[in-house]
Design brief:
Distance between the termini: 25 Å
Helix content: 25-40%
Number of strands: 5
Order of helices and strands: HEEEEEH
Largest sheet: 3 strands, antiparallel
Number of helices: 2
Strand content: 35-45%
Radius of gyration: 12 Å
């Protein structure tokens, strides 16, 4: 499944190659998992669901999930 691929394989690959922030989106559930790089490894910063907002570390901006999922 895509969720397993995103949460395990892609996450490990992105972590290995130095990606600083990784978001996994689940449109059906209107939620986003956020991982930020700390000391060389991804740390889960939380699961955010509509109508939450989340702060992007790398872009220094806030995302309103309600606006994103209702596009």
């Amino acid at each position: 499944s895509t969720g397993k691929l995103d949460e395990i394989e892609k996450k490990e690959l992105y972590e290995k190659y130095g990606v600083r922030e990784y978001l996994i989106e689940y449109p059906e559930e209107k939620k986003v998992l956020q991982y930020n790089r700390e000391k060389g490894f991804f740390v889960n910063k939380g699961t955010f669901v509509t109508p939450d907002s989340l702060s992007l570390y790398t872009l220094q901006m806030k995302l309103n999930l309600e606006e994103i999922f209702n596009l």
